[in-house]
Amino acid sequence: MASVRGHLLSWTTLLPLVALVLLALTWGRTLGPVPVALVAIALAGTVLAAVHHAEVVAHRVGEPYGSLVLAVAVTVIEVALIVTMMASGGEKADTLARDTVFAAVMITTNGIVGLSLLVGARRYGETRFHPEGSGAALATVGTLATLSLVLPTFTTSTPGPGFSAPQLAFAASASLVLYATFVMTQTVRHRDFFLPVDADGETREEEHAEPPSARTTLVSLVLLLVALVTVVGLAKVESPAIEAGVRAAGLPQSFVGVVIALLILAPETLAAVRAARRDRMQISLNLAYGSAIASIGLTIPVIALASVWLKGPLLLGLGPTHIVLLALTVVVSVLTVVPGRATRLQGGVHLVLLAGFLVLAMNP
């Protein structure tokens, strides 16, 4: 009982609740410098709390279910934020879904993967993972991104980089089918392809530390959802300050979406890096590619449905620069995952690709 009480009174429990109260007090208000700073501190602390509770849930349910829980939870809330912002209209609302999803894909496939590889290889010399599982996930990411973000640039049924109604329905249906097939493969049919491997490339046995109790896991699951909702909400509260900073720096307005995507994906990034530090690179890749798949596979169907009542066009097609970056990312990622092992070099290459994306986002 004392341990449960201690768990309930820990900072990882109290901070998301305090941040939720702060979100309620600041939502819809114009904030001064001091409240903006408080919201930023609460946001950073809540991200750390979300990672902790995700790891508790992951330890209880085992892999790869734990990675799936965090990826889906973050993506569902991300989708809700996109729809809310699109419904409110305003500048760039017609390209918001495209910009956010593409930013998420680049951050996950290059940022999370690159940082995890660099951290893991720096500590262990060489990182190992299942090429079958990571390769299947990467193929799904590439297919989803091409169907949803590249093809609209080249279709001719409607003006602009968008789909016609039948084309959008097909893209949404295909996204759902691919996402469901991937989840089935990851959790049922070929679950062993998504488990950590040892130095010989063999599937590693699950860690034998005693899992948390059902009650502790349930509390952590609820707090994880609270923390994720709060992270997204506080990111939206901070967005006016972010927009003001972007304008003051002379950056394009679309860069706001990149900053918000970085904030929303912070829990997954920290969780992936911590897994890499424990020599569990497969878990890091599960988080990265699983998040990219969920970001496209869940966002596009919801946006397709929402477009029935949302005003204005829905522009999904990427420009030439972003198509080149996406193609290069897929090629480099294939060369990274096919051998089943990687060094610091691969991590550095992915991080340079992310840096290139960020530079071009700031200075198109």
From TrEMBL:
* Transmembrane stretches, start-end: 38-58, 65-88, 100-121, 133-155, 167-185, 218-235, 255-275, 287-310, 316-338, 345-362
Domain Sodium/calcium exchanger membrane region spans what residues? 37-187, 220-361
Q: Which domain of life is it from?
A: Bacteria
UniProt-recorded Gene Ontology molecular function terms: potassium:proton antiporter activity; sodium:proton antiporter activity
State its location(s): Membrane
What are the GO cellular component annotations? plasma membrane
Q: Which terms are listed as keywords in the entry?
A: Membrane, Transmembrane, Transmembrane helix
Q: Which InterPro entries match?
A: Alkaline_pH_Ca-Antiporter, NaCa_Exmemb, NCX_ion-bd_dom_sf
Membrane-protein topology: Multi-pass membrane protein
Q: Which named protein is this?
A: Ca2+:H+ antiporter
Organism, by scientific name, is Amycolatopsis echigonensis
